[in-house]
Amino acid sequence: MSQVTIVDYGVGNVRSIINALEKVGATSVVVSNDKETILNSDGVVLPGVGAFSHGMAKLKENGLDAVIKDYAGMNKPLLGICLGMQMLFSESEEFGLTLGLDLIEGKIQKLKTLNPGYEKLPHVSWNEIAQPDAQAWDNTILDGLNDKANMYFVHTFAASPLHEEHILSTTEYSDYVFCSTVKKGNIYGCQFHPEKSAVEGLSIMKNFVKICEESKNGK
Amino acid sequence: MKKIRIISRIDVKNDFVIKGIHLEGLRKVGKPNDMAVKYYESGIDEIIFMDAVAAYYDRNSLSHIIEDACKDVFVPITVGGGIRTIEDIQNALNAGADKVAINTQAIRDPEFITTASKVFGSQCIVISIDAKKTATGGWEVYYDNGREPTGMDVIEWAKKAESLGAGEVLLTSIDAEGTKKGFDLALNDAVTKVLSIPVISSGGAGNAEHISELLQKSDADAVALASVLHYDLLNVGEVKADLESKNIKVRV
Predict the structure, then answer these.
(1) Is A146 on the interface with B (CB under 8 A)?
(2) What ipTM does the predicted assembly reach?
(3) Which residues lie across from B168 on neighbouring strands?
């Protein structure tokens, strides 16, 4: 039985993430800001909504930035959702430059709206995630999903990974293409909310739980 | 290209889903969770729960309903009615909601919109505007479930709400609400034209044509449906199939 810990730093709707993990069969889900609990987990979810600088400040307040980096250093599965994904990156341009966890090289930039008919921000919508090439999703959190599966997005900023190989899916809004899922080893991030993306979203949570289980069993 | 969100609006009073006409004459139509699960399973994109009597008591009593709904419903959930304080918002989010719809408190204290969006992010703050036609061809903002006039112009108030930090506007036409005779197209066009944040149009849908007409004649981002779903006049799949056949994009 693997233990999945949701990092508790006072930002974001963790109730829905707990419910989604339990719905897909996770048997031990905890919400914690305790260093040992996080480090000893088989999987960690970093949630978050709102401003990047606020999120980073809250993580640092509890020394959780270092804890998450130590955890990721053990190559155990980590899933950042929305702001939680953005904070995995080197830095963000939101409200001036703010440094992130720097687990994945790249920066967070404001979405560009290039199509005059679709200029609204934040990007609040169901939207499609596209596979960069066939088989890219095999054995990842997106395993088994159809190319162009619909996910729920609510954001104004998005990630630009420095290395293209870290882009697991892309999404297009107002003719601007951004990275909607990132993967670097066992570190994953989703700009959308899998816990709010109906059946397809739940299958991502299920894949993540499976990856945690396999990682625990040393596969 | 954006996908239009099809949202079910569930008004709740004393643990029952209720539905009225022009926000009045409320009838019980079912249990909140039964209806939420049914709509989720048939492909709804979002759910809005509104505490229909919260305004009288200055409190929102939907926490237990949200907590239950979130165990089975994995699409975004908005809670409205009686949201007055930062603590009310925190409670709604802790129960599992993603957004809150604020009406009366935003009118009483517009700065609350700014405070709330700074704490929780603007994506979390939906400003609910109840609009009623005026004799002079405009629309006036009402509050307390459409009972009290404010003297404020809807267009001006919507622009102000956006500038203060609102992330979305839930626009309800009191005139059209519950009538099943179609949306107030002029109202929706006028408001969506001046805003750059998403608008959820509510009030009046009685058939699929009403919905496609709204989306062709205004820049609405989402539609909130109540009667038409509650009374089984249409199901979510039929709504989406009709929109798709008219080249309006939806999640299928």
Answers:
(1) no
(2) 0.90
(3) B126
Chain B's closest residue to A198, CA to CA, is B74
Q: How confident is the model at residue A2 (pLDDT cuts 50, 70, 90)?
A: confident
Which pLDDT score, from 0 to 100, does residue B55 have? 59
Q: What is the pLDDT of residues A171-215, one digit of tens each?
A: 999 999 999 999 999 999 999 999 999 999 999 999 999 999 999
Instruction: Answer with the residue of higher pLDDT: A109 or B28.
Output: A109
Structural domain containing residue A129:
3-216
List CB contacts (< 8 A) between B122 and chain A: 122
Number of neighbouring beta carbons within 10 Å of residue B152 = 17
Task: Chain A: give the shortest CA distance to residue B201, in Å.
Answer: 15
Helix/strand/coil (H, E, C) string of B134-184?
A: CCCCCEEEEECCCCEEEEEEHHHHHHHHHHHCCCEEEEEECCCCCCCCCCC
What is the percent of chain A where pLDDT is above 70? 100
CA B45 – CA B74 distance, rounded (Å): 9
B251 — phi, psi (to 5°)? Answer: -80, 125
Query: In the predicted model, what is the mean pLDDT of residues A152-165?
Result: 95
Residue B247 CB partners (closer than 8 Å, separation 6+): none
The answer, for B71 touching chain A at a CB cutoff of 8 Å, is yes
Nearest CA among B166, B184, B87 for reference residue B128: B166
Domains of chain B: 5-245 (3.20.20.70)
